[in-house]
Specification:
This protein is of the alpha/beta class. The chain is built from 15 helices and 13 strands. The strands form 3 sheets. The chain has a 7-stranded mixed sheet with strand order 1-2-3-4-5-7-6. A 3-stranded antiparallel sheet has the order 8-9-10, with no helix packed on it.
Length: 344
């Protein structure tokens, strides 16, 4: 698989011949279990096939149970300069409910060690968990803050089919997540993190100044990216492509120097809708000037018409030709965005 990833990079080098790589992100599973030599090899292959900025952000996703002290030191002694750690919760009962492999002790221990070797660390936290009180949620946030991490990503709990959590809810063992609870947790999170110097720069992301995720920000700002490996998605501004998810078929195609991907050409309406969706989730908002310039009068008139009721309800506001969500509207931004979409 590692050699196939390197081969795909080489096969696709021409796609980025006029671009400069600013971030390298190892995600989509648990890449931290890769041997350190494999990680180093893949990073070197990026540098060999693409133009790369002097100090790129290089992130590795990891779970606490993978991050032993030895592993953390190994990662720190390479070009990797950012860790994204799937903590989810510091409470044992939450972790069991979410069927996580790590426990609370491992969550705290890995952060104690990681913060000694890495300056740039992001952690994930989940809110809206059934039976989680506001007090307990605030304790989770305060525990995270005690480790002085500069970036936190936080998401509402979603119940996936065929999971233990789904089964527990169906059997009535635990109650289903409630939107009202999730919304309350969200606002507590925003207030607590902003009090502690974090900037709420995207719906689910909070960073100290200079610690915004460059990888994620590139996506929200509509920059081009290449995804390498099974199921990976890519975007070049006018089309989106995605690799086949089946590992065996992926390996077979790459061995034959064939890219196992499908491509969708984005229409003007697709691109408008994507910009509305990503822009509304961020502090950068939606530029009304850009809508008019790139998409034309039909789109700006439609956007103004659709957004009027949300402005009246104090969920959206216009600041110097930038359409943004208010603090109250932020939690509802995905729903609002869908109402601003052009349907044809």
């Amino acid at each position: 698989m590692v050699l196939a990833l390197a081969n795909e990079m080489a096969l696709r080098a021409t796609e980025f011949k006029n671009e400069v790589v600013e971030t390298i992100y190892f995600g989509g599973g648990t890449p931290s279990i890769l041997d350190i030599h494999d990680l180093r090899f893949l990073i070197d292959e990026v540098f060999a096939n693409y133009k790369v900025v002097k100090n790129p952000e290089i992130t590795v996703e990891a779970n606490p149970d993978d991050l032993t002290e030895t592993r953390i030191i190994e990662l720190s002694q390479n070009k990797i300069n950012r860790l994204s750690i799937g903590i989810q919760s510091f409470f044992e009962d939450d972790l069991k409910l979410m069927n996580r492999a790590h426990n609370s002790t491992e969550a705290k221990k890995c952060l104690e060690i990681a913060t000694q070797y890495f300056d740039n660390i992001s952690i994930d936290l989940i809110y809206g968990v059934p039976n989680m009180s506001n007090k307990k949620w605030l304790q989770n946030i305060e525990t995270a803050l005690s480790f002085n991490v500069p970036h936190i990503s936080s998401y509402a709990l979603t119940v996936e089919p065929k999971t233990a959590l789904h089964s527990f809810i169906q059997k009535g063992i635990i109650p289903p997540p409630e939107d009202e609870v999730a919304q309350e947790h969200f606002h507590l999170l925003v207030d607590k993190l902003e009090e502690n110097g974090f900037i709420h720069y995207e719906l689910s992301n909070f960073g100290k100044t200079t610690y915004f995720s460059k990888n994620n920000s590139s996506y929200w700002l509509g920059k081009k990216y290449i995804g390498i490996g099974p199921s990976a998605h890519s975007y070049n501004g006018i089309s989106r492509s995605w690799n086949i998810s089946n590992n065996t078929l992926y390996l077979k195609s790459i061995a034959e120097n064939i890219l196992p991907s499908e491509t969708e050409i984005l229409t003007k309406t697709d691109r408008y809708n994507e910009y509305v969706m990503t822009g509304l989730r961020t502090i950068w908002g939606i530029s009304l000037d850009r809508i008019e310039r790139e998409f034309g009068p039909k789109y700006i008139e439609y956007l103004n018409q659709q957004s009027a009721k949300y402005i009246e309800d104090h969920l959206l506001f216009v600041d110097d030709t930038i359409l943004r969500t208010t603090k109250i509207g932020k939690f509802l931004s995905d729903g609002i965005a869908s109402d601003l979409f052009m349907l044809n």
